[in-house]
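user:
I keep going back and forth on a fold encoding question. Separate attempts, laid side by side, tell us more than any discussion would. Would you put together a sequence-and-structure record for a protein of your own picking? Write it directly below this note and I will take it from there.

assistant:
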Amino acid sequence: MAMRVMLVDDEPFILQGLSRLIDWEREGCEVVKTAADGQEAIEYLAEGEADLIITDIRMPRMNGIELLEHLRAEKISDAYVVILSGYSDFKYAQAAIRYEAMEYLLKPVQKEQLLGLVRKVAKNRAVSRQEELDTKKMQRGYLLQNLSVLLQGRTEEQRLSYVREHFRCTGGVRYLHICLNDLAALEEMTDEEVVALKDAVYECAASWLQEDADHLLGEFFAYEEEYELGFLYCEHMAAKRNLSEGAFMRAFHQALQNGSKNMPVILLLGKWVEDIAKISHSYSSACVLRSFKGFQERQNVFYYEKEVQVGEAKPILCGDSLDALVKAVEAGDSLAINKSVDALFTEMDRLDRTRETVVMNLNWLIFRLLSLAMEQDESVSQDEVLSFISGNVSKEEIIRGSRAHLRKFAGEYAEYLAQLKKNISGGILQEIECEIRERYAENLTLRELGQKYYINSSYLGQIFRKRYGQSFKSYLNTCRISEAALQLVRTDKKIGEIAEDVGYHDLDYFISRFIEQEGCTPSRYRKQARERQE
């Protein structure tokens, strides 16, 4: 954005001369206003803005010193102010200093003198803007830290007050997961491509939300999965747009879809809570929807209240057939699996195989299979197991009568359980850990490592969480940022070069990750480390 300049002098030929003395556009500036006195300048600033004001002292109605005094006292503008004067009287210079003028120059001003002044202001302005941006990022990070505590169900009063103040959540609230919903396509994308896609979705959402865009939770927020954004929805957002909640969500979804480059986007709405203090209940229910979205009817917006309700119809559970299928899966017996699937479909056919009956029996099967996994290793993440299931089972295929689909899924799940039984996490993880530390700058994926070491990628993700307390990608990012921190201290490389060295091709993404892990920007980290060494 061009630096906005205002020139103030009661002599038209001086205004004209200042306007032509240098090439303002070439210096990244735009002369937005020429004013004949201080009063005219004040009137412009009531609605317009300026970054640099160059003003004469002696003018009718309001002189330059009075203008400066008025700007500071009324806090009308924080523009840099330069006083021009044909008088070298010390009292004028003294007054200019008292009211924080940047410079006091005597007329006639020379071209090189004006160029030097403009470039000095541009440099100061850039530094100030960067410091302001860094401060905002730090404040945002602190806000999200407080929110994360609330999501864990710890309602500490100080943190709760801070979140209330900055998120404007008066009345009821919902937590939303915004999900990119094509895991197969996403797994084939690089980290940078996924980040770019999420950024595009974020920007479209922010543009539509306008002043409510700060309720979007992006890269600073560790509680979302790699392919998700978070959002805090408050009831006033729909009300001020004269929309119902349903209409708001449909319009919001369309805005998200516009930025996703044909990647399907879905909204998972946690249950409605009457106050932000209970946001953990809404968050946890949104996570339940995250686990079930793979085997619910295809739709754009999922409401927790609708998805978990028990219908009036009373479908029948095919208990014996399900027991036989679960037993066959546990034993890894492919022939018994096929026979049990056939028996289950035969029994559901006898019951006319209504949608309700299929859904009930499928959900019961899922929870039985989930229990099998937890019995093998109780530290296994339930969400990870459900993610494996949802990525491999299609309820629609089963409703349409696809026995082959259920056989394939049951066989794959039997192999998955067999891997759990082997308890291979120790030695394999040590090898993978060494590989990550050697190849952290590459676009490593669970899928690639799983294929190399003959491990199901979903299970590999689980044992990673068990061993390191974080996801594979989080572990990879931790390695990258730790290496970047070392390079910041030990080398004089530019920050952009270091970002490339450790595997980040998007500088903004690198900086946000660095702040998340180290608590400050890379430049500040380097400065503080070197100050400690002196």
Remarks:
- The chain has 25 helices and ten strands.
- The first helix runs from residue 12 to 21.
- The two ends are 38 Å apart (CA to CA).
